[in-house]
Structure formats: C-alpha cells, structure tokens
Amino acid sequence: MPQSGLLVENRIFDPAETLSRPDLAALQLARLRDLVERVAHVHFYRDHFTLHDITRRSIRTLDDLRRLPFTTKDDLRRHQPLGFLAVPRKDLARIHGSSGTTGRPTFVAYTPDDLRIWSGLCARFLVAGGLKPEHTVQIAFGYGLFTGGFGLHYGVELVGAAIIPAASGNTRRQLDIIHDLQPEVLICTPSYALTIADAARDAGLDPRALSLRYGHFGGEPWTEDMRREIEEQLDILAFNNYGLSEVIGPGVSGECAARNGMHLQEDHFLVECIDPETLAPVAEGESGELVITTLTRQAMPMIRYRTRDIARIYREPCPCGRNTLRMSRVAGRSDDMLIIRGVNVFPSQIEEALLRVDGTTPHYLIEVSRPGTLDQVTVKVEIRPESFSDRMDRMQALRERIAREIHTVAGIRAEVELVEPRSIERFAGKAKRVMDKRGLTEA
Amino acid sequence: MKLQQLSLFLENRPGRLGAPLEAIAAEGINLMTLSLADTAQFGILRLIVREWERAKQVLEHAGWVVNLTEVVAVDVPDRPGGLAEVLRVLESAGLNIEYMYAFSLRRGDKAILIFRFEDPDPAIDVLKTAGLHIVDAEELFSHFP
Predict the structure, then answer these.
(1) Where does the pLDDT of residue A101 fall: very low under 50, low under 70, confident under 90, or very high at 90 and above?
(2) Residue A420 and residue B98: Cβ atoms within 8 Å?
(3) How much is the pTM?
(4) Domain range spanning residue A279?
(5) Domain tally for chain B?
(6) Same-domain check for residues A275 and A376
(7) What per-residue confidence (pLDDT) applies to A443?
(8) What is the predicted ipTM?
(9) Same domain, A270 and A345
(10) Residue B9: which of A393, A396, A420 has the nearest Cβ?
(11) If DSSP codes are grouped into helix, strand and coil, which group holds residue A404?
(12) Which of A378, A382, A390, A417 to mutate to test the interface with B (most CBs of B within 10 A)?
C-alpha cells in the first residue's frame, strides 16, 4: 500500500538518490574538479581555461562553476563531428545524434561507463514510477540516433523487466502487441499514448481495459491536462521524465511516486536556472533556462550546457526521501525550437529546405497543430514569380519537392501549402515564422 | 502566330477568383477567354486578353504573381469531331500537349482551341502542314468590337 501522498510503492533504485545535501555537495565538488581536469582534452574548453587560468585548483566551491564558460548548441555544431570528445575515439561504445539545423545531426558519444551510468539514471526514474522486474514494458520510442529508444531500453533491462522493443509507428501493430503480450508499462511520447488509446477505440477495444498500468512519457513538452487525459483514457498512472541528448538523453530528471516535479539526478548533473537574457541566475523557484553540467560523462562532458528549456527549480523536501532539487515541467523554450512528434525542429531548418528548392527564401509560416493526438505541421509558402508556372504538374512538383526537402533537412513530414504573395502576415516588416496552436504549455 | 497568355496563382478559397477579374474589369480590359486548373489547395488561372501588357501590369501591381506564356490557337469548325481531328494530327506527330482549353466564338460557327506546348514552334509547323488554321492575336481579337 503506498504511503500517504505517494501514488505507487516508494522504491529507490540507487542509494545515491537519497544522499544528504552535505554528502551530495561534497560529491559534486569532487566530481566538478575532476571534470575540469578531464575536459582539458577538449579544445573548446582548453582554450577558455588557458585564457582564464582555470585549473582543477581554481574550483574551491560549487559556486566556482560560474567561472566556467557556457556551452551552446552552436558551439557543438561548430565542432561537429565529435569535436567535443574528451577521450580517444577508440574508447567510444556508442554514438547517438540529435537534429541539427542543416539536416546533419549533432552527434553525442558514449563510453561503456557513460552507457552504464545512463542506464542507471533511466532505471532510477522507472523504478520511482512503479517499474518492477516482473513487469513487461513496451517501448514505442524510435530506436536509432534518437536517444529515447536505446536509453530507456537499457534502463528497463537494468531493472530486470522484460522489454518489447516495438519502436515507433504502426499504431495498429502496437495495439495488437499490447493485446497479445499484455505489457503493464508503456514508454513513448505522451501524444503517442493518446494515439494508441484512439487506435484501441477504432478497433472496438476499450483502452481502459488494456493491460497497461503505468506509462513513462517524455521526448516532448506536455501539460497536466494531457496527463489527466492519458490517465483517464488508458486507466494508467502517467509519469514524466526529462533529458536531452546533448547531455546524455532521458534520465536527467524524472518523477517519483509523489509526482510533484522531477527529481534532478544531481550526483551526475549540476543544474543551474538562468535568465536567458542576462545569463544571471534567477531566484530559486523562478522560471528560467536550465543550464546543465555533466559531472560524470566521459566521452563528451558538457560544461554549463544551455538547454534552452524553460522550467523552475525548487528544493522543498519530498515525501519520497530523495533530497535532490526538483524541476517543473518544461514550460517553453528560450529559442525557437519546436518539438514535432518527438523530433526537434528549428524554423531555420525549414528555411534551409526552402532555400535548397528555390535558391532564395520565400516568406513562409510554420503552423503546428494537433487535430487529433498527433502533431501536424503545415508549411505555408508564398509563391514567388520565379517559382510560379502556368503548368499544374510543375506546381505540384514544386510542392512535393519542398515537402521532400523539409523531410530531408528537418526529418518531419509536413503538409506544404502554396499561398499567394503577401498573404502571410508581417509584423513590423518581419514575418512571423511559427504559429503553434497545440497549447502544450500551461498558461 | 502565338498568343500571349497570362497565368495567375490563386489560393483555392472563396473570393479568390473574382478579385483579379474585377481588377482587370475596372481597367476596362475585356476577357477573351479563361481557363482554371485547380487543386484542393490552389489554382492556376489562365487568361487571354487583348491588352495583355496592361493587364499584366495591373495584376502585378495589385500583388498577384503573373506569368506570361506563349500559346497556340487553332480554329476548327464547331461541330462533332472538330477537336478530335486536331488531336490526331498532334498525336501522330508525337507532340505532347501540356494543357488545352477551348471556347466558341459568339459569331460564326468556329470553335477556338488554345494549346500549351513545351515548345510551340514545331507544333505550329505540324498544325500548318496538316492544313489547320492557326489564329493569331490580330485575327482572334478582330472578332471583338
């Protein structure tokens, strides 16, 4: 029987999760000092350290973190591929990637130890959210460069539960597998959970009567309303987790049985919350951009990585016994990145695709909606005299070519709408590039 | 021998077809004929007008994307089989028609066929050799007051 305030039995996978604050701080400081030494192999950091005379000994307290430079996605891009490696290439065990702005992924690398730690981080939040070794887990995340599939896969394996690596897509087949193999746990994006519920109803099944009891959802922003919807429709408990491939993948934080914010895995990550304009820390509990330093990553350590994710961080005690800071749901982005069906998309990628087709960038508008349970992207493109033809076959070919380039560059299927010149609204001479009608963040 | 055809890009929603037609009507420009190719989302309006230069200017000034294409007009007797005969000629010459449309004249018993070819000149030769009558702009518009 769960304790009061807890939704499931309170279990802790790793004793490190309940370190006292002083012990945790001591561990973090030791790891931070090691980190400063380890990243000296990375040009980007070494140059900064030399310039500012930073060595292991300059780090006396955790506050000295603020003397270290930020790392941005642009920095990663400029040093692709693998310019941030802190170990010899031969020591790598795996390479994942996240979407880049020009169609080339930003690669992230792992040593065997990185993979072991990553699995452990995923195991922590899975166990906190009810996963037991006797369970069967259906993973409906993409297995590939995307970190979601493999990250969760090895986390579940570490807990000792059985895995159905269903991967993403083919909803009807997902449903058949659930029906046949009776998994208790579903892992996917929150919107895909609703798609599965829809598919069940379409197949004449009651989604509440499916075997599922728990869901671990991440990879895209969602709201408490969506959680209620998922729980109501599938009759499960839905847990939120957070991570990003640049620092490791899923496993940076996750909810516990109290389900009041996500516990940051502070023995492996130092997390700051800053004002994205001034770069100064925000007051505790205030909204800001998360900045993450990886304390234990070997292959590709990140110092003060600017996630661009906006959230709150707070430290009230949690009934689950973990002493870590917790973070709120991600409430938005401090850049223009969109997450479409779990795929990170930047408007600049759409622009790049249009440039490839046309040789110049026409005015365009990216409309994102969620008519049912899945994201739909419509790219409206103003027709230009140079690209207009009196022949319908040429116009259709133009549309298809734009859609194909968008798929190549951004990895998403978009509906392309050709529209009349000057039909997209300009604001002070500038066109608005994105209209997101999904309402994914709480007002 | 060729006619200048104006083509406009239009979104497929209420009111979009009327707007450009009103714009040229306001300039006193009379339409000889038009054709519309459409999809669920957009359409291409093709116009034949006598004063195509002025019409193009008016439409472009009002913000439309206008494209100028040379098309070939052939007149045939307005009776069953009139079009089929022309198509046979083009087919046996292996000429591909990008698109075509037709209209009949108010006076007389002629129908006018408008053809869009990738390359109009060889098509004109083929049509002429087959004894068909190509209608040029002057002749076509002489039917109008």
Answers:
(1) low
(2) no
(3) 0.79
(4) 15-334
(5) 2
(6) no
(7) 46
(8) 0.88
(9) no
(10) A420
(11) helix
(12) A390
